[in-house]
Amino acid sequence: MAKRRRFLALLSGTLASTVVLTGCLGNPQGSTSAGGGSTSAPAVSNANIETKTISLGFIPILEAAPLVIGVEKGFFAKHGLDVKLSKQANWGAARDNVVLGSAGGGIDGGQWQLPMPQMISEGAITNGKKVPMYILAMLMSQGNGIAAADAVKDGNLTVDLAKSSPGFFDKFNQKEGRKFRAAYTFPKANQEFWIRWWLAAGGVDPDTQVELLTVPTPETLQGMKNGTMEAFSTGDPWPSRIARDKIGYLAATTSQLWPVHPEEYLAVRADWVDKHPKAAVALLKGLIEAQMWLDKPENKDEAAKILSSRKWYNVPQEVLAESLKGQYKLGAEGTPVNDPKLGPLYWNSDRGVISYPYKSLTQWFLIEALRWKFYPGTVDTIEQAKAITDKVTREDLWKQAAQEVGVPAKDIPTGSSRGKETFFNGIVYDPENPQAYLDSLKIKK
Fold first, then answer.
1. Tens-digit pLDDT profile for residues 364-378
2. How many CA atoms within 13 Å lie on the side-chain side of 359?
3. How far apart are CA 258 and CA 272, in angstroms?
4. pLDDT digit string (tens) for 330-361?
């Protein structure tokens, strides 16, 4: 297993000059600090922060872009913080590394699928070891997709399976003598949630009609080529690259499922934040500025160039540029779509500021976990979900950072709820009444 993870880390583009340690031992996959060659933001003295460094993990998908840009463009350094980014071989390695903490050779936090920070805090995915964490900001909205293999082009899989592909999954299972295989990069977290939501909305029970698999991101392309899976849910640029390389097609984007949905988040160990509250605010100030920069259309090409390097994503620049601009080829026919509102959103949206860690949105992942009974003994009731949300999600630090960095007051949310959320098929999630949401879902455990 250790050799395999080393191999995956190398595949993901870690430089020979970085420190590469086995992910299964819980060590970082290499680190890079500020000063990567791009024009940096002006340095600003910030002698009052309690520490000058933090170690954060990332997975090379578009959700991590604000962290990379924050380092490369000097936004973190501007606020006195040296952010050391460590590329993680997979989500399991990231989890193990944050349990170690930087003092133990791991990381202090980083990019996370939800509800990983909540469940690490509760010990539900760390063999009972509770490592309290704080969710500090949403890194990005949208920018995820569900790719389908060319082998199932005849199924014409789209966002609305009930209309486009009625009966397809049962027919496939009968014909192949096995279940349709759908994959994601980490179990019981948001990329599995998206594929489950998509299937269930189309009348397909993901627990009985489909075989669900966990496949590390670096194995995505080869696995689809080899027929390991018929569908894959992950962050861009991987779904777009599958379509671009003519290995499969983009069946649906998550922006079609739920416009301006919550995606991955920045979360840090609570002990680090509690010990370094001013540094935590400095981290958020740099992040906010990086997200603002990323959202500007004129910066998309430069962002793609930065991210494409071997040091970061090791993905062709043109693939990243298309993904960042919301340029997709949708469906079995590969219909071109050019709509920035369908692509990744880092700062602005029709629902307001993306970065703010609304409790109503971080709570949704726990309600969805309750739907599928993912964490028995930890999330069995709505009351437990609400209690965990209140404990882990820190809106106060984001507000302080936004005020200090000069975000207009009108862009700083005043409450913990974004209000009612509506999915593509009319299903409504009202954070004030999660039970009504659960009751409206026909397929659940």
1. 999 999 999 999 999
2. 18
3. 34
4. 999 999 999 999 999 999 999 999 999 999 99
Pick the CATH number of 144-260 from 3.40.309.10, 3.90.480.10, 3.30.70.120, 3.40.190.10: 3.40.190.10
Topology (CATH) of 2-141+263-308: D-Maltodextrin-Binding Protein; domain 2 (3.40.190)
User: Which of the pair, 201 or 216, is modelled with greater confidence?
Assistant: 201
Residue 261 has pLDDT above 60, yes or no: yes
Sheet of 335-338, strands arranged across: 210-214, 180-184, 231-235, 144-149, 248-253, 327-330, 335-338
Instruction: Say which residues have a Cβ less than 8 Å from residue 34's Cβ, sequence separation at least 6.
Output: 40, 71, 72, 74, 76, 77, 82, 83
Query: What sign for the dihedral angle of Cα 63, 64, 67, 72?
Result: negative
Greatest CA span in the chain, whole angstroms? 67
- Other C-beta atoms within 10 Å of 257: how many? 21
Residue 25 has pLDDT above 60, yes or no: no
Q: Show me where the domains of the chain are located.
A: 2-141+263-308, 144-260, 358-376+418-445
Range scoring the smallest mean pLDDT among 13-22, 86-95, 240-249: 13-22
